[in-house]
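Work package 3, deliverable 3.1, input record:
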Amino acid sequence: MAVSYEHRLLFRHEGPLDMEVLPHIVRSLDKLLVEEGIRTPLRRKIISSLIELAQNIIHYAVHSENQPPLLSLSRSDEGIVLTAKNLVYYSQEIFLQSYLQNLTQMSRAELENLHHNTLTSGSYSDSGGANLGLLQVLFKADKFDYELTPAEGEHSWFTVKAIFFLKSHE
Amino acid sequence: MSDLTTSEKLVIEPTFTTPEIIFDPGNRKFFIGGNSYPENSLKFYGPILQWLENLAQRHIPQPDPFILEVRLEYFNTSTAKVLLDLFRYFESLHEKGQPVHIRWIFLEEDTEMEDAGLDYQAAVKVPFELVPINEESA
């Protein structure tokens, strides 16, 4: 699966990501999307998804000074494209391949059911997460793609691309 | 926040990533509002849940209802899960005879937030009202 980057870039952050940086990104993007004329419901979908992807990076990604994570937002004919790219360990790649392959094959009703069950009876992760982040992004986005590609050493690049259609929110 | 007691109201000022919390059992008003995407939701909400547990254990039911208003903008999925735990404490109070009314306030065109409210409404056994507001009054 190839992830394309041919869009008008609205925002790009490539560098260390932590909970000091994230609120600044959220506030800047909120303002930027207002200026882009994106209405509140869609704006909230996009930024909520960005928060989930960013917090996954903060909690789980391999932290490398030379190969920092990337978050970007661009505008295409299709809509707003949110991209998150970060290094993961090989063991995480195996999990992500299996987990996302399973999720992307589910119907909307099955996703809703999984979301409900995880929310009401699932456990918290060590970092206090609900194990719902990627599911939530897949749920909110109109299109969801991901790819895992080899990186140096025992790492892989994990890229998520979530597209939010403009037309369905006009 | 380690010294929370139910003898007085609980007030937590908002930050960019954590909500304003005002739990005032004396006046029967409870409020959660703003953003909620802390790095570790359990760490932030843990003492609040503990405070509610103490309240649920010690509270003597009164005829007037406790009103909990929830008015969130951005909240992450771990907050979504913690909120359900929080609502369970209000459910527990309700089961013990304390009337409880939860008001989930959301922008009227924000279907995601409305759906989240509907999920909670179905999951908890207390009066749970969805309150749409328009952007001007938000």
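The longest strand of chain B covers residues 66-75.
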